[in-house]
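Q: Could you write out the predicted structure for this multi-component system? I'm mainly interested in how the pieces pack against one another.
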Amino acid sequence: MSVRFYNTMTNKKEEFVPLEEGKVGMYVCGITAYDMCHIGHARSAVVFDVIFKYFKYRGYNVTYVKNFTDVDDKIIAKANEEGTDISEISERYIKEHNEDMDRFGIARPTMTPKATENIQGMIRLISTLIEKGLAYDVDGDVYFSVGKFKQYGKLSGRHIEEMVAGARIEVDEKKTNPLDFILWKSAKEGEPWWDSPWGRGRPGWHIECSVMSQRFLGTTFDIHGGGRDLIFPHHENEIAQAEGASGEIFARYWIHNGFIRVNQEKMSKSLGNIFNMREAMNQYHPEVLRLFMMHSHYRSPVDFSDESLAEARLGMERFYGTLRNIKQYLATDIDFSALSSKSLTGNDEAIFEKVTTLPERFTEAMDDDFNTARALGYIFDVVRLINGYCSDKKFRPTPEALYVLNAAMTAIREVGKVLGLFLEDPDDYFEQDKKREAAKFGLNIDEIERLIEERQKARAAGNWKKADEIRDHLVSKKITLKDTPETTTWTIG
RNA sequence: GGCGGCAUAGCCAAGUGGCUAAGGCAGCGGUCUGCAAAACCGUUAUUCACCGGUUCGAAUCCGGUUGCCGCCUCCA
């Protein structure tokens, strides 16, 4: 079996055959460093983080390159606003980006090049394009001549003539064809610049990705990814630049993630419905946000709302609840180290078989276009199975049972690691959750625990009326109690 | 105007030619519990927006209709 996924270039699911056996070269368009990251950036990061981790899980040696755009109009505007230079702005937001992504459980890519570190490579590529007659220089501005690249539009399925007729394109006197895009911009007063054969200026947006991807991954490489909105014009232009210059195929497979929506609308700055990552992480555990995203296929749009996040939180509670349960059983001093799967019989054996084959089902789901939703379904199956196993009246924590539970935990953790889930200690997870929820609802944890203690005394005395009064009071504050013979635990929400 | 995507139970969401249409949330009945909660068991779509067609057979393929969304301008 091999990994299959949807290739935007062909609009079909295809079997993935890497250029070089056992290796994957992947380039993903990163952020323009001029503002805090929002959950849309987080989704893209999660999608490619999971793909990165999954290829590694499948035994590939992956080189994952994700760039930072650190020179651009918006960065310049912000720098001018603050009376500083662009590097201060970009460095600040790259730092914020890394902090957010780390907290989100996103593994650092193999390489994270910056545009400004690759200006010479861009100048070389632009020069080649001019030599080949695919680009032209007008007063220090260099444009790509779209009409000269026969395959223009092959990724997005567009045709040059139709786009010209489409008319929403700004008229620029300097361009031969209104669809031509800029490769090099001449510097205006007060803008950062680099020397070039066409005078002082800076690169256009698209050129950096053509250069950096090929620099680190080769002229032709395996996978290029990014958000759906980058298909046109960004990725189309990257192809034109790279393939126009080299005459060879640029990226062999294209992966694009779907968008985050809010109330059925795209989340965008112009609509003012942006949720930034940091804010979201204060409201929900990063794993809850990841679970929410992975609940849907990576190419589908997902609707971001309090309801959907609350549901993801409940799902997370289910996973961690089972892991906590297993952890408690394993904390006893029953020794199961001498056992092997051969020692198991009957139900123990059947459950063991089912849980230890989870990675196989997980792989089957992920091999099919990174189907995280189906994979999660399989993990939920194991959770239900284990909960049933433990809650059976005949269940006893025998060494055999603990051996099975340990295998279940190992299997869940193994696949969870690829998805970036279940990485917390279950008790820590619930502790964090409690604090976060308490802060959200303005509740005082000490006060709650004092009331619970008071209720415990009433319960011990058989004063059910008082115990229930206290519980009702807490329930009205969204606090749920769970009594066990010895103690009472509680959760919010 | 051009290009593309989506439509599956109360909600979220897999499934893209053939076993009983995954899984989660919510609901209902039961087990457990002082009562609850959690957990478990059972139950909840003869049916996959609508209309035609292809096929022995379609949620899945084809054509049309309706609705929603994205891209075509910076955008993950």
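A: Regarding packing and overall arrangement: Residues 443-492 of chain A form one domain.
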